[in-house]
Model the fold of this input.
Amino acid sequence: MLKRIEARRVRNGMFVEAIEGAWQDPFLSKRRFLLRREADALKLRKSGIEGVIINTSRGLDIDGLLIEIDTQAARETIQKSVQVLESVFGRLQHGDGISVDQVAPVISSVSKSMDDNPTVFLSVTRLKSKDEVTFLHSLSVSALMILFGRHLGLDEATVQTLGTAGLLHDVGKLEIPLEILNKEGRLDEDEIKMIRDHPEKGHAILSRQEGMSEIVLDVCLNHHERIDGKGYPRRLSETQVSFHARLAAICDVYDAVTSVRPYKAPWSASQALKWMLGSEGQFDRRLVKKFALCLSVAAVS
Ligand SMILES: [Fe+2]
Done:
């Protein structure tokens, strides 16, 4: 089982899967290792990092100071949801039609998880395997949009639609090969173009589906637009970026930077929020502040 613990709880004998905040240190950021010496554990505790992801099936668990979190139910929900998404995305990829009803069971279980225990659900979707990265990212963004929408007091029908928008926002990535999506090094111009085309491709796919909500279409097309007009695909200006697209941009980037990927160290929630608040012109700052409050109320770390 993978667990996130605060850096001060790191002990000799733990198996470290990832270190939060070590992205500037190429040595630490890529390693998965068993802590064999107390001196190394001490070095980690004193290194100024915030948290560590440990694998308790390969090393020591945390000491009894923290409450055990049972992730079994969340993992089952996620597994079933990924299967539904695989089939829905597969249909779309082959040009077949889908209806919103097909993703409704996923929305209702994500929605319930956000009511029951958002921390557990979001900590499990944070761990992205290479082949399921788009599905897990979609689930996570859907969950964050539901959580945030409820926090903002939006009506439940809009909250559910935002959840659907989160699930389908990256459907245009279906056409991007996995080796490009998972590429560790620099992308060349063609690859960047392919990635930047995904909102329009996704929007074209979803526009062909009957009864697709305007909010879902808007989020799909505009979740990479920025407040300062430097986003893509259309470089919309501040007043042109809708409330729903602003909300999606925050949830999308937050999940991307806090995800645990095989090749990069994740940011902690507070590092991500600090960076997002300081990132001039990219997000609606007032909304980011509300998002930070939403996560602290839900105790997501
Ligand atoms: Fe995207």
About this structure: The chain has two domains: 2-55, 72-297. Confidence is low (pLDDT under 50) at residues 64-68.
